[in-house]
Amino acid sequence: MAGKSSSYACVFVDRSILSIYRSDSTTPISIELPPEIVDAIEVIDDDGLVSLLQQALAGEQPEAETIIVFLDATYFTKDVSPDPNDKTKDISPEADEKFAEIVPFETAFARRYEVGNKSYLTVVNADMFYTLKLALEKNRYLVTCAVPEILLGLSDGQIAANSPYGFQQVLKKFEYLKKNSIAPVAGSADVATGSVQEPEDSISGPMVTQSPKPKPSSLTFAVPVLLLLLGVLGFVIYQQFSAPAVVSQTPQPEAVPTLPAVSPVISATATPGPAGKRKTELTIRVLNGSGRSGDANRVSSFLEDEGYRNITTGNADSPNPRETQITFTGNLPSQLRDELRTVLETIEGEIDIREAGTGEADVIILTGSRSGSQATQNKPSEQDDGE
């Protein structure tokens, strides 16, 4: 349960709305986020977001201890569980950093969490967190941590997190969530060191990127340099007082200062599209090549949830008996290609990448009969155009 504060609050962050629940009020506060202020989980106007919250929370002075919960649609996650059947699966810290770098956030926080027998890398928007924290604390909502929805354990999305029941789960796990924040919050020793403490329902994971890099101590450099100078001085004195002789001197490697180990800080850079487009402006054509009814709409719905907007569907002229294909037309940046490929691999598995000089869209996706076996969250969809 929560600690000793007299009031507690939770801010559920969705793509276009904030929902605020308080323990001393039965009425939640809903704040819509217009696209000119927040678009595709990216803060467009920091001052505008602060002003929007100040207007919506005018007169609110709760002094409430507050947790920010990023809902599923607002963060990126990757299954990094060991797979005994896939020896090529890369679950190293370097792979975590590469995944975070293609996430379309200007700055990001990333952390691994263990849920049941699965391990997930989660990446959230750092700019969104800091701007929300500033705006909330101007209205005396005292932010103590930020966590992804996955930590609430709400039956794989069958129960909405931004609901009275979800808020009750936050209150129940309040102290545990504070110890497992994905974002660094001043005054929390557990967060600063990245330690994770497990409650009764085991969810844990070491910090991937969170705290600032520590500065190397000046002694780390001074001691090896001093030893090196003393060694040189001793050698010169020896040469002056020793009998003349031909000495074969084997060069000794210079002492290398030992730096303290630091955690990598991941900074994900926003990905531009062709001719300066954002990914929401890219045109994507999804064609059903697998022969499975509704396959193109399934992929289209998934891409819309990931922030892509200009998507059309249809049937392929001929079936595709192999894995799903992505054909990039024109000169698309490599970061944009990698991002789309990574997103599709979460539901399609292996992807066949192709190039074309021109086409009916910036990106053409052809589903294949060998693909889609990894889709664990497929939504029911209407039949594709022409199916």
Task: Give structural notes.
The protein is an alpha/beta fold and 387 residues long. The chain folds into two domains: 8-209, Nucleotidyltransferase, domain 5, CATH 3.30.420; 274-366, 2-Layer Sandwich (Alpha-Beta Plaits), CATH 3.30.70. Helices cover 27% and strands 22% of the residues. The chain has helices at residues 46-56, 93-101, 126-138, 164-172, 174-179, 189-193, 218-241, 295-305, 334-348; strands at residues 8-13, 17-22, 29-32, 38-39, 42-43, 64-70, 76-79, 108-115, 118-125, 141-148, 203-204, 207-209, 283-288, 310-315, 325-329, 352-356, 363-366. The strands form four sheets. The protein has a five-stranded mixed beta sheet with strand order 3-2-1-6-10, with helices on both faces. Strands 7, 8, 9, 11 and 12 form a five-stranded antiparallel beta sheet that branches. β8 and β9 (118-125) form a beta hairpin. α1 (46-56) packs parallel to α3 (126-138). The longest helix has 24 residues, at 218-241. It is globular and about 85 Å long.
Notable characteristics:
five-stranded mixed β-sheet, 27% helix, Alpha-Beta Plaits, single chain, 387 residues, globular, alpha/beta, 2 domains, Nucleotidyltransferase, domain 5
Second rung of CATH, namely the architecture of the largest domain: 2-Layer Sandwich
Rounded to an integer in angstroms, the radius of gyration calculated over CA atoms is 26 Å
What is the count of distinct domains? 2
Under CATH, the topology of the largest domain can be stated as Nucleotidyltransferase, domain 5
H and E order: EEEEEHEEHEEHEHHHEEHEHEEHEE
Mean pLDDT: 76
Shape: globular
